[in-house]
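FORM 12-B: Structure-to-Sequence Request
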């Protein structure tokens, strides 16, 4: 399948399914990376899945991309550009609609997989628009309530499933930030799994096989 020129740059591994519209998994990389990073998972995932790995819209110097800026200064320390993050949230939602239409994908069976900053955006999309998303795989990230749409808690999240994992010695995003997710998700009635692995800011092989098995039961 040829990659179409859509609103966000992306890589695609087509589904092997020849019947109906295939399920789709969208991948969102971390800060300073690109669409090739998580795409290395694609050959190991279910062949029936269409896998689309997306490049974040904000280029960085000298290389890489971001979903939003992370700023460092002496006065405020480290802070995130939440307005830029909200813009990326909406860009992702528009791209999902665009890609599903262009590639003939099943809009009832959409999974988001994020790593780090890509997880923060995957949570933002899934929690803000639970009517659109079936599954979220949240690797090494956390929920930023400031970038969720207004009134998100009033929506029904009953059909959303979340797999979240984190490294026990993550030096980039503290495990305590990720550990808040289970209570947050429970309060919204979202079915979820939360696991930790003895690694830093990355995805251990056992972590990969855990979310792969989880996803096989959900597709």
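FORM 12-B RESPONSE
SEQUENCE OUT:
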């Amino acid at each position: 399948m040829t990659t179409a020129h859509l609103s966000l740059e992306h890589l695609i591994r087509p589904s092997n399914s020849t019947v109906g519209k295939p399920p789709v998994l969208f991948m969102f990389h971390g800060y300073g990376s690109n669409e090739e990073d998580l795409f290395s998972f694609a050959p190991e995932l279910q062949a029936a899945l269409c896998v689309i790995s997306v490049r974040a819209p904000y280029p960085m110097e000298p290389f890489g991309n971001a979903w939003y800026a992370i700023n460092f200064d002496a006065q405020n320390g480290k802070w995130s550009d939440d307005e830029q993050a909200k813009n990326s949230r909406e860009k992702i939602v528009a791209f999902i609609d665009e890609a599903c239409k262009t590639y003939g994908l099943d809009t009832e069976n959409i999974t988001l997989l994020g790593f780090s900053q890509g997880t923060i955006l995957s949570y933002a999309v899934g929690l803000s628009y639970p009517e659109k998303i079936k599954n979220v795989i949240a690797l090494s990230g956390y929920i930023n309530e400031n970038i969720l749409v207004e009134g998100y808690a009033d929506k029904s999240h009953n059909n959303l499933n979340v797999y979240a994992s984190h490294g026990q010695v993550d030096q980039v995003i503290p495990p305590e930030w990720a550990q808040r997710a289970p209570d947050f998700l429970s309060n919204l009635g979202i079915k979820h799994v939360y696991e930790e692995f003895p690694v830093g800011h990355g995805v251990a092989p056992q972590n990969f096989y855990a979310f792969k098995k989880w996803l096989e039961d959900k597709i």
